[in-house]
Amino acid sequence: MAKSKNCHALPLLLALILFFTLLGTSHAGGIAIYWGQNGNEGTLSEACATGKYTHINIAFLNKFGNGQTPEMNLAGHCNPATNSCTKFSSEIKDCQSKGIKVLLSIGGGIGSYTLASVEDARNVSTFLWNTFLGGKSSSSSRPLGDAVLDGIDFDIELGSTQNYEHLARFLKAYSGVGGKRVYLGAAPQCPIPDRFLGTALNTGLFDFVWVQFYNNPPCQYANGNITNLVSSWNRWTSTVPAGKIFLGLPADPAAAGSGFIPADTLTSEILPVIKESPKYGGVMLWSRFFDVQNGYSTSIIGSV
Ligand SMILES: *[C@@H]1O[C@H](CO)[C@@H](O)[C@H](O)[C@H]1NC(C)=O
Ligand SMILES: *[C@@H]1O[C@H](CO)[C@@H](O)[C@H](O)[C@H]1NC(C)=O
Protein backbone atom coordinates (compact mmCIF):
# COMPACT_ATOMS: atom_id res chain seq x y z
CA MET A 1 0.00 0.00 0.00
CA ALA A 2 2.61 2.48 1.13
CA LYS A 3 4.71 1.67 -1.91
CA SER A 4 1.96 2.29 -4.45
CA LYS A 5 1.12 5.59 -2.73
CA ASN A 6 4.69 6.82 -3.25
CA CYS A 7 4.56 5.81 -6.89
CA HIS A 8 1.61 8.10 -7.44
CA ALA A 9 2.93 10.96 -5.33
CA LEU A 10 6.07 11.62 -7.38
CA PRO A 11 4.43 12.17 -10.80
CA LEU A 12 1.80 14.33 -9.09
CA LEU A 13 4.48 16.42 -7.42
CA LEU A 14 6.34 16.87 -10.71
CA ALA A 15 3.12 17.85 -12.47
CA LEU A 16 2.41 20.43 -9.76
CA ILE A 17 5.91 21.89 -10.02
CA LEU A 18 5.58 22.13 -13.80
CA PHE A 19 2.14 23.73 -13.47
CA PHE A 20 3.32 26.44 -11.07
CA THR A 21 6.46 27.07 -13.10
CA LEU A 22 4.40 27.70 -16.23
CA LEU A 23 1.79 29.70 -14.32
CA GLY A 24 4.12 32.20 -12.74
CA THR A 25 7.37 32.72 -14.57
CA SER A 26 8.52 35.34 -12.13
CA HIS A 27 12.16 36.01 -11.45
CA ALA A 28 13.89 36.68 -8.16
CA GLY A 29 15.83 39.91 -7.90
CA GLY A 30 18.03 41.96 -5.62
CA ILE A 31 18.28 45.50 -4.32
CA ALA A 32 20.99 47.83 -5.58
CA ILE A 33 21.71 50.97 -3.57
CA TYR A 34 23.72 54.15 -3.95
CA TRP A 35 25.93 54.96 -0.99
CA GLY A 36 28.29 57.88 -0.50
CA GLN A 37 26.43 61.15 -0.88
CA ASN A 38 25.39 61.72 2.73
CA GLY A 39 27.69 61.49 5.74
CA ASN A 40 24.71 60.59 7.98
CA GLU A 41 23.78 57.36 6.18
CA GLY A 42 26.14 55.13 8.14
CA THR A 43 29.13 53.16 6.94
CA LEU A 44 29.43 50.74 4.07
CA SER A 45 29.79 47.84 6.50
CA GLU A 46 26.56 48.84 8.23
CA ALA A 47 24.76 48.94 4.88
CA CYS A 48 26.09 45.51 3.95
CA ALA A 49 25.32 44.04 7.38
CA THR A 50 21.60 44.73 6.87
CA GLY A 51 21.58 41.87 4.36
CA LYS A 52 19.19 43.90 2.20
CA TYR A 53 21.46 44.81 -0.68
CA THR A 54 23.03 42.78 -3.47
CA HIS A 55 24.80 45.68 -5.23
CA ILE A 56 26.34 48.87 -3.83
CA ASN A 57 27.32 51.81 -6.01
CA ILE A 58 29.85 54.05 -4.28
CA ALA A 59 28.95 57.58 -5.38
CA PHE A 60 30.66 59.48 -6.93
CA LEU A 61 33.83 60.00 -8.89
CA ASN A 62 32.50 63.33 -10.12
CA LYS A 63 35.53 64.87 -11.81
CA PHE A 64 37.27 63.18 -14.75
CA GLY A 65 38.10 63.50 -18.41
CA ASN A 66 39.37 66.32 -20.63
CA GLY A 67 42.79 65.88 -19.04
CA GLN A 68 41.56 66.82 -15.55
CA THR A 69 43.00 65.14 -12.47
CA PRO A 70 40.09 62.90 -11.42
CA GLU A 71 38.44 63.53 -8.06
CA MET A 72 36.11 61.56 -5.90
CA ASN A 73 33.48 63.06 -3.60
CA LEU A 74 32.01 61.04 -0.73
CA ALA A 75 30.29 63.95 1.05
CA GLY A 76 30.87 63.82 4.83
CA HIS A 77 32.15 60.23 4.86
CA CYS A 78 35.80 61.07 4.31
CA ASN A 79 38.13 63.37 2.43
CA PRO A 80 39.94 61.90 -0.57
CA ALA A 81 42.36 64.86 -0.50
CA THR A 82 43.72 63.77 2.89
CA ASN A 83 43.48 60.07 1.95
CA SER A 84 40.92 59.37 4.71
CA CYS A 85 38.66 57.35 2.40
CA THR A 86 41.09 54.43 2.47
CA LYS A 87 39.36 53.38 5.69
CA PHE A 88 36.60 51.98 3.48
CA SER A 89 38.95 49.47 1.88
CA SER A 90 38.34 46.81 4.53
CA GLU A 91 34.59 47.59 4.48
CA ILE A 92 34.48 47.02 0.72
CA LYS A 93 36.18 43.65 1.21
CA ASP A 94 33.76 42.86 4.02
CA CYS A 95 30.79 43.58 1.71
CA GLN A 96 32.32 41.51 -1.09
CA SER A 97 32.83 38.59 1.32
CA LYS A 98 29.04 38.61 1.80
CA GLY A 99 28.57 38.24 -1.97
CA ILE A 100 27.66 41.89 -2.49
CA LYS A 101 29.01 43.51 -5.67
CA VAL A 102 30.61 46.89 -5.04
CA LEU A 103 30.96 49.29 -7.95
CA LEU A 104 32.37 52.79 -8.23
CA SER A 105 29.82 55.17 -9.68
CA ILE A 106 31.20 57.84 -11.97
CA GLY A 107 29.30 61.03 -12.80
CA GLY A 108 26.32 62.18 -10.76
CA GLY A 109 24.21 65.33 -10.76
CA ILE A 110 26.97 67.71 -9.68
CA GLY A 111 30.52 67.70 -10.98
CA SER A 112 32.92 68.39 -13.78
CA TYR A 113 33.23 65.51 -16.18
CA THR A 114 33.29 64.84 -19.87
CA LEU A 115 35.07 62.58 -22.33
CA ALA A 116 36.69 64.84 -24.90
CA SER A 117 37.84 62.15 -27.34
CA VAL A 118 38.43 58.42 -27.79
CA GLU A 119 41.95 58.94 -26.40
CA ASP A 120 40.48 60.73 -23.39
CA ALA A 121 38.12 57.79 -22.83
CA ARG A 122 41.10 55.43 -23.02
CA ASN A 123 43.02 57.47 -20.46
CA VAL A 124 40.06 57.53 -18.08
CA SER A 125 39.66 53.77 -18.43
CA THR A 126 43.35 53.27 -17.62
CA PHE A 127 43.00 55.52 -14.59
CA LEU A 128 39.92 53.62 -13.32
CA TRP A 129 41.60 50.26 -13.85
CA ASN A 130 44.76 51.28 -12.00
CA THR A 131 43.07 53.24 -9.24
CA PHE A 132 39.93 51.26 -8.33
CA LEU A 133 40.07 47.93 -10.15
CA GLY A 134 42.72 45.24 -10.63
CA GLY A 135 45.46 47.43 -12.10
CA LYS A 136 48.70 48.42 -10.52
CA SER A 137 49.24 51.56 -8.52
CA SER A 138 50.63 52.40 -5.11
CA SER A 139 48.19 52.17 -2.21
CA SER A 140 48.55 55.91 -1.59
CA SER A 141 47.23 56.72 -5.05
CA ARG A 142 44.13 54.58 -4.48
CA PRO A 143 41.48 56.69 -2.69
CA LEU A 144 39.67 53.52 -1.54
CA GLY A 145 42.87 51.67 -0.69
CA ASP A 146 43.82 48.28 -2.08
CA ALA A 147 40.29 46.85 -2.30
CA VAL A 148 39.57 45.80 -5.88
CA LEU A 149 36.07 46.93 -6.82
CA ASP A 150 33.76 44.75 -8.90
CA GLY A 151 33.16 47.31 -11.58
CA ILE A 152 32.21 50.79 -12.70
CA ASP A 153 28.74 52.34 -12.77
CA PHE A 154 27.97 55.11 -15.28
CA ASP A 155 25.64 57.76 -13.83
CA ILE A 156 26.21 60.33 -16.55
CA GLU A 157 23.90 63.33 -16.27
CA LEU A 158 25.92 66.30 -17.54
CA GLY A 159 28.83 67.33 -19.76
CA SER A 160 29.31 65.91 -23.23
CA THR A 161 27.14 63.03 -24.43
CA GLN A 162 30.06 61.62 -26.44
CA ASN A 163 32.51 58.74 -26.09
CA TYR A 164 30.93 56.74 -23.25
CA GLU A 165 30.63 53.73 -25.55
CA HIS A 166 34.43 53.84 -25.89
CA LEU A 167 34.90 54.04 -22.13
CA ALA A 168 32.62 51.01 -21.76
CA ARG A 169 34.63 49.03 -24.36
CA PHE A 170 38.00 49.93 -22.83
CA LEU A 171 36.81 49.00 -19.33
CA LYS A 172 35.21 45.74 -20.44
CA ALA A 173 38.46 44.78 -22.16
CA TYR A 174 39.99 44.51 -18.66
CA SER A 175 37.39 41.94 -17.62
CA GLY A 176 39.12 38.70 -16.71
CA VAL A 177 42.59 40.31 -16.59
CA GLY A 178 44.03 39.02 -13.32
CA GLY A 179 41.13 36.57 -13.06
CA LYS A 180 38.40 38.98 -11.94
CA ARG A 181 35.42 40.11 -13.96
CA VAL A 182 34.81 43.82 -14.48
CA TYR A 183 31.11 44.55 -14.24
CA LEU A 184 29.54 47.57 -15.89
CA GLY A 185 26.49 49.32 -14.47
CA ALA A 186 24.52 52.28 -15.81
CA ALA A 187 21.84 54.57 -14.43
CA PRO A 188 20.07 56.08 -17.44
CA GLN A 189 16.89 58.18 -17.20
CA CYS A 190 13.78 56.27 -18.31
CA PRO A 191 13.07 58.11 -21.61
CA ILE A 192 14.57 56.01 -24.46
CA PRO A 193 17.18 56.60 -25.73
CA ASP A 194 19.03 58.12 -22.80
CA ARG A 195 20.75 61.27 -24.03
CA PHE A 196 24.10 60.47 -22.42
CA LEU A 197 24.14 56.69 -22.26
CA GLY A 198 21.99 55.51 -25.17
CA THR A 199 24.94 54.79 -27.48
CA ALA A 200 26.95 53.15 -24.72
CA LEU A 201 24.01 50.92 -23.74
CA ASN A 202 23.62 49.78 -27.34
CA THR A 203 27.05 48.14 -27.15
CA GLY A 204 25.37 45.44 -25.03
CA LEU A 205 28.33 45.54 -22.65
CA PHE A 206 26.41 46.55 -19.52
CA ASP A 207 25.68 43.89 -16.93
CA PHE A 208 23.31 45.96 -14.77
CA VAL A 209 21.14 48.81 -15.98
CA TRP A 210 19.28 50.56 -13.14
CA VAL A 211 16.90 52.84 -14.96
CA GLN A 212 15.82 56.00 -13.12
CA PHE A 213 12.04 55.81 -13.15
CA TYR A 214 11.81 59.12 -11.27
CA ASN A 215 12.06 62.82 -12.07
CA ASN A 216 10.75 61.73 -15.48
CA PRO A 217 6.94 62.16 -15.65
CA PRO A 218 6.50 60.56 -19.12
CA CYS A 219 7.74 57.19 -17.88
CA GLN A 220 7.16 57.04 -14.15
CA TYR A 221 4.44 56.15 -11.65
CA ALA A 222 2.04 58.97 -10.82
CA ASN A 223 -1.03 59.20 -8.57
CA GLY A 224 -1.89 55.53 -8.58
CA ASN A 225 -1.38 55.16 -12.32
CA ILE A 226 1.19 52.52 -13.31
CA THR A 227 0.56 52.65 -17.09
CA ASN A 228 3.46 54.89 -18.13
CA LEU A 229 5.94 53.11 -15.90
CA VAL A 230 4.98 49.62 -17.04
CA SER A 231 5.01 50.51 -20.74
CA SER A 232 8.44 52.13 -20.33
CA TRP A 233 9.69 49.07 -18.43
CA ASN A 234 8.48 46.85 -21.25
CA ARG A 235 10.38 48.95 -23.79
CA TRP A 236 13.56 48.81 -21.72
CA THR A 237 13.42 45.05 -21.27
CA SER A 238 12.51 44.34 -24.90
CA THR A 239 14.69 46.83 -26.80
CA VAL A 240 17.79 47.68 -24.75
CA PRO A 241 20.53 45.03 -24.78
CA ALA A 242 21.72 44.57 -21.20
CA GLY A 243 22.35 41.77 -18.76
CA LYS A 244 19.80 42.70 -16.11
CA ILE A 245 17.47 45.68 -15.82
CA PHE A 246 16.55 47.13 -12.45
CA LEU A 247 13.61 49.38 -11.55
CA GLY A 248 15.32 52.51 -10.17
CA LEU A 249 13.27 54.33 -7.53
CA PRO A 250 13.55 56.95 -4.78
CA ALA A 251 13.66 55.28 -1.35
CA ASP A 252 11.68 58.15 0.15
CA PRO A 253 9.41 60.92 -1.22
CA ALA A 254 12.15 63.41 -0.29
CA ALA A 255 14.75 61.53 -2.36
CA ALA A 256 13.49 62.84 -5.72
CA GLY A 257 11.32 65.57 -7.20
CA SER A 258 8.73 63.02 -8.36
CA GLY A 259 8.23 59.32 -8.96
CA PHE A 260 8.09 57.92 -5.43
CA ILE A 261 5.96 54.74 -5.26
CA PRO A 262 4.31 53.68 -1.98
CA ALA A 263 5.78 50.32 -0.95
CA ASP A 264 2.42 48.50 -0.96
CA THR A 265 1.68 49.69 -4.51
CA LEU A 266 5.09 48.52 -5.64
CA THR A 267 4.76 45.07 -4.09
CA SER A 268 1.12 44.40 -5.00
CA GLU A 269 0.73 46.05 -8.42
CA ILE A 270 4.09 46.67 -10.05
CA LEU A 271 6.60 43.99 -9.07
CA PRO A 272 4.32 41.07 -10.02
CA VAL A 273 4.06 42.54 -13.54
CA ILE A 274 7.67 43.54 -14.18
CA LYS A 275 9.08 40.33 -12.68
CA GLU A 276 7.70 38.43 -15.64
CA SER A 277 10.62 39.69 -17.72
CA PRO A 278 13.69 37.42 -17.76
CA LYS A 279 15.71 40.68 -17.84
CA TYR A 280 14.37 41.69 -14.42
CA GLY A 281 17.28 42.17 -12.01
CA GLY A 282 15.51 43.80 -9.07
CA VAL A 283 15.09 47.28 -7.68
CA MET A 284 17.66 50.10 -7.43
CA LEU A 285 17.19 52.67 -4.68
CA TRP A 286 18.43 56.22 -4.37
CA SER A 287 19.87 56.24 -1.79
CA ARG A 288 21.17 54.53 1.35
CA PHE A 289 20.53 57.75 3.32
CA PHE A 290 16.86 57.88 2.32
CA ASP A 291 16.46 54.14 2.79
CA VAL A 292 17.67 54.50 6.39
CA GLN A 293 15.12 57.30 6.92
CA ASN A 294 12.16 55.50 5.36
CA GLY A 295 12.87 51.77 5.71
CA TYR A 296 11.79 51.25 2.11
CA SER A 297 14.01 48.24 1.40
CA THR A 298 12.64 46.53 4.52
CA SER A 299 9.08 47.06 3.26
CA ILE A 300 9.72 45.67 -0.20
CA ILE A 301 12.43 43.04 0.16
CA GLY A 302 10.02 40.15 0.61
CA SER A 303 8.62 40.83 -2.88
CA VAL A 304 11.73 41.81 -4.81
C1 LIG B 1 46.42 60.49 -22.27
O1 LIG B 1 47.52 60.02 -21.53
C2 LIG B 1 48.76 60.22 -22.15
C3 LIG B 1 49.81 59.50 -21.33
O2 LIG B 1 49.74 59.88 -19.98
C4 LIG B 1 49.02 61.72 -22.29
O3 LIG B 1 50.25 61.94 -22.94
C5 LIG B 1 47.89 62.33 -23.11
O4 LIG B 1 48.04 63.73 -23.17
C6 LIG B 1 46.55 61.99 -22.49
N1 LIG B 1 45.47 62.42 -23.38
C7 LIG B 1 44.43 63.13 -22.96
C8 LIG B 1 43.39 63.46 -23.98
O5 LIG B 1 44.29 63.53 -21.80
C1 LIG C 1 -3.21 56.26 -16.76
O1 LIG C 1 -2.28 56.91 -17.61
C2 LIG C 1 -2.50 56.63 -19.00
C3 LIG C 1 -1.33 57.24 -19.76
O2 LIG C 1 -1.16 58.59 -19.42
C4 LIG C 1 -3.84 57.12 -19.42
O3 LIG C 1 -4.06 56.84 -20.78
C5 LIG C 1 -4.92 56.45 -18.57
O4 LIG C 1 -6.19 56.99 -18.87
C6 LIG C 1 -4.63 56.63 -17.08
N1 LIG C 1 -5.55 55.82 -16.31
C7 LIG C 1 -6.33 56.30 -15.36
C8 LIG C 1 -7.19 55.33 -14.64
O5 LIG C 1 -6.32 57.49 -15.05
TrEMBL record:
PROSITE patterns: GH18_1, GH18_2. GO terms for cellular component: extracellular region. It is found in: Secreted, Extracellular space. Its main location: secreted. This is Acidic endochitinase. Keywords: Carbohydrate metabolism, Chitin degradation, Disulfide bond, Glycosidase, Hydrolase, Polysaccharide degradation, Secreted, Signal. The keyword Disulfide bond applies. Its EC number is 3.2.1.14. Residues 29-304 form the GH18 domain. It catalyses: Random endo-hydrolysis of N-acetyl-beta-D-glucosaminide (1->4)-beta-linkages in chitin and chitodextrins. GO terms for molecular function: endochitinase activity. CDD domains: GH18_hevamine_XipI_class_III. It comes from Glycine max. PANTHER family: ACIDIC ENDOCHITINASE, ENDOCHITINASE. GO terms for biological process: chitin catabolic process; defense response to fungus; polysaccharide catabolic process. The lineage of its organism: Eukaryota, Viridiplantae, Streptophyta, Embryophyta, Tracheophyta. SUPFAM superfamilies: (Trans)glycosidases. Residues 1-28 form the signal peptide. Belongs to the glycosyl hydrolase 18 family. Chitinase class II subfamily. The keyword Secreted applies.
